[in-house]
Amino acid sequence: MGTTQLETVPEPKYWHLRTVLSEALDSEFSVGEILPNERDLAARFGVARATLRQALEQLELEGRLQRRRGVGTTVAPPRMGVSVGTAQHAWPGGPDDAWQAVDCTREVPPATVAETLVTGREEPVYTVRRSRVSQGQPVAAELLYVPASSVPDLSAIDAPSGAARARAVLRELRRLELERHENAVELGSARADDARELDRLPGAPVLVVTTSFIARGRVAALSVATYRADTCRLTFGDSGGVEIHHGPERRAS
């Protein structure tokens, strides 16, 4: 990308620079690549650093760039479309599921989760931890709460701990006949654990998608998935699943 004469452009300088930079991200940079420092970029385009910062901030808001602690400003991975449709989905952990099982423990869930699952406040449930990665970078983390009554045949011998137990819980859960699911979406702030796992600063904006999986007339499992707001967008409709959008679609909608 070469120096662009911005003085003759009627629109704000930072907005035109944002357009030029966006085109350069598509043609010259790859996901995860670190941009030159602000001084070099400002000199290259012949603009003040304040103008450059405005353009970079706009691209960060659009999910094209991200600031990584101890690294700098990098090219963000494509936005992930989070579907909140109403069609029946498969259980988590199926062959088309892009989530990766990380760990599984038995612990007492938060009170709100226990209330949704209709378990005792001090009754431990299986807590499956999963992660979602796009272009080699973490974009989402999930806690899946499963009561023991939903997986009565789970064997501790077959699944002693860690990811193996997580996969065993998911396998046993799929033995139930899924009736439907119910989604709720809200904007939140990354807690310390979420921020560490998603490579963000605490308090960074996130999308929290809570999914209740209904079987036998009750909530058989509850998923609380936390998505990085800078790499995700909501999609509405009857289609299910989570899709990765490439090319021009990765821009904010």
Can you describe this structure?
- With 253 residues, the protein is α+β, with helices and mostly antiparallel strands.
- The chain has 6 helices and 11 strands.
- It has a 6-stranded antiparallel sheet. It has a 3-stranded mixed sheet with strand order 10-3-11, with no helix packed on it.
- Helix 1 (13-28) packs across helix 3 (49-61) and helix 2 (38-45) crosses helix 3 (49-61).
- The longest helix is centred in the N-terminal third of the chain and has 16 residues, at 13-28.
- It starts with 12 loop residues before the first helix and ends in a 9-residue tail after the last strand.
Instruction: Provide the low-confidence segments as ranges.
Output: 240-253
Q: What radius of gyration results from the CA coordinates?
A: 22 Å
The averaged pLDDT comes out at 81
Question: What level of helicity do the residues show?
Answer: 10-25%
Task: State the main characteristics.
six-stranded antiparallel sheet, 253 residues, 25% helix, three-stranded mixed sheet
Short description:
Keywords: DNA-binding, Transcription, Transcription regulation. It is built from 6 helices and 11 strands. It is an alpha+beta fold and 253 residues long.
Topology:
Elements: H1 13-28, H2 38-45, H3 49-61, E1 65-68, E2 72-75, E3 80-83, E4 100-107, H4 111-117, E5 125-134, E6 137-146, H5 162-173, E7 180-189, H6 192-198, E8 205-215, E9 218-228, E10 232-235, E11 242-244
Parallel strand pairs: 3-10
Antiparallel strand pairs: 1-2, 3-11, 4-5, 5-6, 6-9, 7-8, 8-9
Helix pairs in contact: 1-3, 2-3
InterPro entries: Bact_HTH_transcr_reg, Chorismate_lyase_/UTRA_dom_sf, Tscrpt_reg_HTH_GntR, UTRA, WH-like_DNA-bd_sf, WH_DNA-bd_sf
Keywords: DNA-binding, Transcription, Transcription regulation
Protein name: GntR family transcriptional regulator
